[in-house]
Amino acid sequence: MRPDLATALAEPLLSLDAASVHFGSVCALQPLGLTLSRGERLALVGPNGSGKTTLLRLLHGLQAHQGQRRLHRPLVAAMLFQHPFLLRLSAWRNLTLALWLRGVPAPQRAERAQRALERVGLAEMARRPARALSGGQQQRLALARAWALQPDILFLDEPTASLDPSAKREVEALIDEFARDGMTLVMTSHNLGQVKRLSTRVICLDRGRVLADLPTEDLFHRTDLAPEVSLFLKGELPWT
Ligand SMILES: Nc1ncnc2c1ncn2[C@@H]1O[C@H](COP(=O)(O)OP(=O)(O)OP(=O)(O)O)[C@@H](O)[C@H]1O
Questions:
Q1: C-beta 50 within 6 A of ligand 1
Q2: What sequence ranges are listed for the domain ABC transporter (predicted)?
Q3: Does ipTM exceed 0.85?
Q4: In what side-by-side order are the strands of the sheet with 153-157?
């Protein structure tokens, strides 16, 4: 690997230190520490209710918590949800409005919106009502909106869970391209095939506890994983 690339990959973006989350008497996340570095593609996996979304929100800075969350530099972040939140406006207006809300000056808004639509293959759909697009197109529009903000980190909560196989492939391919361009990813997923294809690092959660934090390759190839992690992997088969 080129040394400059290695350095860039190791640049820490944000850290958690003894961070935990409670909802009343429910402990959704036990105290944990981690550092996310530029260029990482982190997947959060685990059974329902294990704390994936809570950890995603905590990393994003949306979640009240105990302990510390520290940014190592100012960061631009964007979030993609399982069901894209789109306004009853054209695809184009959904994009330009998001750019306006982030304070992007008017002359740049149109250019960025156009590039973003082209990037996700929706340039032809600019004037269409966003909510009349197919599920896959809506998710691509949401990706365009995220990409247009030029985020350091893209947070994705089950980004393809409600899509058919072909739309899922398209959305996955775009996420992969964004990451190859240098965007840092943090995603939750129940699809281990997707985790294998898209991530470089995996955190396995169970009942709010981190069972494992390891390179994705190790998750699928190591034979000395904690028994709960092996059970989880078996339970989630098949992965495609
Ligand atoms: N706003 C909330 N109020 C109360 N409890 C909550 C709230 N959000 C999450 N929880 C609880 O915190 C725990 C972790 O929830 P979380 O949504 O993070 O799990 P998850 O792993 O993302 O689940 P899933 O795979 O079903 O999306 C669960 O016990 C959940 O019921």
A1: yes
A2: 13-232
A3: yes
A4: 77-80, 153-157, 184-188, 41-45, 201-206, 209-215
pLDDT in tens, 35-44: 999 999 999 9
Q: Compute the C-alpha angle 108/111/116, nearest 5°.
A: 120
The pLDDT confidence band at residue 240, using thresholds 50, 70 and 90, is: very low
Residues 97 and 90: beta-carbon distance below 8 Å: no
- Does the beta carbon of 53 lie inside 6 Å of ligand 1? yes
Residue nearest to atom 4 of ligand 1 (CA): 23
Is the Cβ atom of 26 under 6 angstroms away from ligand 1?
yes
d(CA 14, CA 70): 6
pLDDT of res. 45: 96
Ligand 1 atom nearest 50 alpha carbon = 21
Paired residues of 156 in beta bridges: 80, 187
Q: Which atom of ligand 1 is nearest to the CA of 24?
A: 4
For the chain, the first-to-last Cα distance in angstroms comes to 30
Kindly give the distance from the C-alpha atom of residue 224 to the centroid of ligand 1, in angstroms, as a whole number. 29
Q: DSSP per residue over 34-56, as a string?
A: EEEETT-EEEEE-STTSSHHHHH
Give pLDDT, residue 210.
96
pLDDT tens, position by position, 191-238 = 999 999 999 999 999 999 999 999 999 998 888 888 888 888 887 655
**Ligand 1 center to 80 CA (angstroms):** 18
